[in-house]
Amino acid sequence: MERARIHETWSSPRAFFLAAIGSAVGLGNIWRFPYLAGENGGSAFVLVYVLSILLVATPMLTAELLIGRRGGQSPVNTLRLLARDEGCHPLWRFHGYWMLSIVVLGSSFFSVISAWCLAYVPLAASGSFSGVDGVASEHLLASLQAAPVRIIAWHGLFMGLTVWVVAGGIHRGLERAVRFLMPTLFVLLVLLVGYAAVIGDLGAGLAFLFTPDFSRMNAEAILNTLTQSFLSVSVGVGVMVTYGAYLPRGVSIPMLRFSEMMTY
């Protein structure tokens, strides 16, 4: 059932692609993934993770985008409308509430971590991390956490920036932000990899990455690959249902190619 659009849509597949990456790439990939791979067989974990992405997470991602585009509204209203159209039980709308509750709970954690990151920017600029070892870095974080007014101020700044971006809508808010933030993140990751390669043992890292240890891939490790794959594509929390609501009707979701994403 085709519905009239009540809001703006993504200006291009590339804009959607950048926003989707911005939603998916975060602490789950940069922080959680390395130690999971380290504890679960290195490249053996990576191999099963890639299979989980291709066989489980990607179909879920496609389904959420299709549901979101067809409903064209928030997860709650989208599920309510689709349940009515298909003659399903109206209680399906509560799945939308469930997804929103996960986002709220997750934001209560990630917003605090983001506030720490903002607080670290002036510390890094002033050279406070120069020559700091693990123990000293723990003391820096502890001193930050022991100053409630300071951490509340940084948290308020982060939440204010978030509200400012969201209030700008798709074109003037989110798209403008991701066009700056995502290339910046990519550059930072390249610099971190280069720095680690110079000061670390690159050979040992490559050997670990490309020498699988399948003896450590037990049932718990496989479950970790599944949960990590869901985090990596940001499914199950309503984000992609919401992003799908802003996709134009003419865009083929299964066929979003790189060449399309690079054109405006």
Question: What does this entry look like structurally?
Answer:
The chain has a domain at 13-98 and 170-252. 73% of the residues lie in helices and 0% in strands. Helix 1 (13-24) packs across helix 8 (170-199), helix 3 (43-71) packs across helix 10 (219-233) and helix 7 (148-167) packs across helix 8. With 264 residues, it is mostly helical.
Q: Ends: how far apart?
A: 28 Å
- How large is the count of helical segments? 12
The count of strands amounts to 0
H/E series, N to C?
HHHHHHHHHHHH
Mean pLDDT: 83
* Uncertain segments: 257-264
Largest sheet: none
Class of secondary structure makeup: mainly alpha
Shape: globular
Strand content: under 5%
For the CA atoms, what is the radius of gyration? 21 Å
Helix content: over 70%
